[in-house]
Specification:
By secondary structure, this protein is of the alpha+beta class. The protein has a domain of 79 residues. The protein contains one helix and nine strands. A four-stranded antiparallel β-sheet has the order 2-3-8-7, with no helix packed on it. Strands 1-9-4 form a three-stranded antiparallel β-sheet, with no helix packed on it. A hairpin with a 5-residue loop joins strand 7 and strand 8. It is elongated, with a radius of gyration of 31 Å.
Length: 126
């Protein structure tokens, strides 16, 4: 709460009191007024699916989902093709070795040992 003024008066005439009330009331109203500003609604993030995993230089299966031009990665993840590496019914056995955004913020990287994986990037305008 904003304090406008503190003062002490022993005797004030009715006319002067009314004048002070009007001035103080106007100050309070001016300080308490709110001007609405309509901000643009944020755009929905764009979900980009990377290509099927390819062998990288470390013999890992790697997939990189790249954000469209003018956007930056704000999240990401991966999927595993269960039919490719299933030892028990509905159980995929894959060792994920990397799951992170690219250092420059342009996409998401997933890497796995012997895994059929794909990457996803969630991208938004900065």
């Amino acid at each position: 709460m904003r304090r406008i003024a503190t003062f002490s008066v022993k005797k004030i005439s009715t006319q002067r009191s009314l004048g002070l009330s009007i001035i103080l009331g106007a100050c309070v109203l001016a300080g308490a007024s709110v001007i609405p500003v309509h901000a643009a609604a944020p755009e929905e993030p764009i979900i980009v699916k990377g290509p099927a995993a390819q062998r990288d230089r470390n013999d890992w299966d790697e997939s990189i989902a790249k954000c469209p031009s003018g956007t930056r990665v704000v999240g990401g993840g991966y999927e595993v093709n269960q039919s490719a590496h299933t030892r028990l019914p509905r159980t995929a056995i894959v060792n994920i070795t990397a799951n992170h955004p690219l250092a420059d913020g342009s996409g998401w990287r997933i890497a796995a040992e012997d895994g059929d994986v794909g990457s996803y990037a969630m991208c938004a305008k900065p």
